[in-house]
Queue: 2 jobs
Job 1
Amino acid sequence: MKAPPAAATSAAVIPASVCTALLDARHVVVFTGAGVSAESGIATFRDALTGLWETFDPEMLATPEAFLRDPALVWGWYEWRRKMVMRARPNPAHLAIASLASLVPRLTVITQNVDDLHERAGSTGVIHLHGSFFRPRCCACSRPHGVPAGEPDEPDGGRRLEPPRCGHCGERIRPGVVWFGESLPVDAYRPAEHAVRNCDVMFSIGTSAVVYPAAGLPYAAAECGAKVIQVNPAATDLDAVASFNLRGPAGTVMDLLIRTIWPSMPASR
Ligand code: APR
């Protein structure tokens, strides 16, 4: 008989059992999704009304076929999103996660996000499962291409913008992100899977956990005996496998968590 999902706890208090699990942990994994950047003003994908996929059609913008069909539309849209990220700042969740690195014996940060807010908050060795806005490459020879200098000057929602050309083979440059229908980079997925199968505690922060194979990682961790701590204002399919469901915005929950367990740490707000 399957155990009922762990009761959701409001973000007002951090349960003592969460504190104990973290203080006992040798290896902690933090797995994040778009929700961790929501408080930095970056839209998530599936949140009602505000999610990007509420306004934009992923079939038209986030598939290899879409880029073949209309490269200027796709490139312009990603340049607009890169602009939004460049204007954003890490929020208390990113800062709290970065500070964890000096508080636990070993920390691995795995993200589905293509922004650089974890790095700008001070996290190092972040595993980007779905690529990055800051790693464009040639769509034919895959050679990396320099990120266009400065902040893109793109209107809201993007506009048609011809992508630059590869200096080596002359083909078009594509955004360095993983599109629907594409495989995840092996050099990201393999170490991520290894980390989740060898950790004691895994945070799943700000993800709806519906896009696989990334969404399978918290299940793999739970299977291997790790305690999964979900941080999300809403319920997700992960409620069933999480040892703890902390309901609330990541910035509030993670900041409170650090200050509750390590009171001498300065607030990340
Ligand atoms: N703090 C924590 N979680 C939040 C916050 C917040 N402030 N605001 C929203 N959330 C939660 C939502 O409740 C939702 O469960 O974040 C989640 C965001 O889910 P999605 O928009 O589906 O984003 P994500 O899970 O990262 O999407 C996975 O899908 O579109 C593709 O490649 C894209 O990497 C992305 C993947």
Job 2
Amino acid sequence: MSITYKQVAAGVALAFGGLVSAHAATITISCGNNAADVEFCGKFAEEWGKKNGHTVKMYTPPASTTDNLALLRQQFAAKSSDLDVIMIDVVWPGVIKDHLVDLKKYSKGVEKDHFPAIVANNTVDGKLLGMPWFTDAGLLFYRKDLLAKNGLKVPQTWDELAAAAKKIQDGERATDKDFQGFVFQAKAYEGLTCDALEWVYSYGGGTIVDDKGNITINNPQAAKALDAAASWIGTIAPQGVMNYGEEDARGVWQNGKAAFMRNWPYAWSLGQAADSPIKDKIGVAALPAGTGPGAKKAATLGGWQLAVNKYSKNVDAAASLALYMTSADIQKKRAVGGSYNPTIPALYKDGDIAKANPFMVELLDVFTNAAARPATATGLKYPEVSNAFWDAAHDVLEKKSTGAEAVKKLEGKLKQIKKAKW
Ligand code: GLC
């Protein structure tokens, strides 16, 4: 009996398969914070699994970063090995630092290709706790067609935005009673911290706590910013915005039911999808400035990293997956296909990325100058600080207190959280 080439190949494959499976691991990756990205993230992770003989399982974390962190902290407390690679928010490294693997041993210096500020953010006590995956900044999405129809320019201040939103809303409501002027994130969670920091910082009211750890929120400009936002609720924004996260705002916007939206870059690619009712009608700009002393345009810095769970049973394979997913090749694919901003400066010169996402190049300074939440200064206490801030902002939006009352009370609360030091 002669042995065919096919049989030899099959035998080799079997032996090889056996070898591989001895080392084959099942790696669970937590990623995707909107429906589209779950699929997108999974696709590349599975690609890595096939290439390396590992099985990849997807875990979809809660869409709210606040709920996501709460669940993770429970898992860490139980030293759970369920997750291997974990998508972590830019404000988390100082909070969950004790539960993550130092990736320096695996990265072999490749982090030097990424924005140094993000690498610094992810480095705690000399340990590289997350590979930068994508960066975010709050953006103003507007309807080009509706601005043109009303003879309006892109608003440069929040007052201009409120006036433009009102004008467009009044006109559109003649035929669509559900039409909204402006949608954003005002649910009591981390997303509101991001939006409200933009209002406060754009009015020259600082960043809640400064770089040195001083509590700065009790100032007239911060109060004015919160009062301005409160005036939008029920006028240019629906009452329901008080319960909106990113995806709620995007739902209204992408249905063609809003003139303006504050959201992160990912909303661009979804809005431009073939089946999107607002395809080719979307403009993207920097968020408006406040008014008064110190006013400027502002965006909150967001973004996600891939980290490895210290309690994982497969740290080496998990680190390899984290590095694969954060590589220039995958970042480019995610930028072109999902408008996720790369964390590698060189990619901002890539023609394909620029073509798919003109705003990434046009608004590069928005991304590089975005205001950081005070996570580094407040370390482990950041979640409490943020929670106190979003509660204060929510109270003002609900008209339970004025901006001035809220920032005074918040200062007291932050002093209690800080005690002697952060
Ligand atoms: C985005 C940002 C993240 C932020 C979150 C708030 O996911 O990337 O940094 O914390 O929104 O909802």
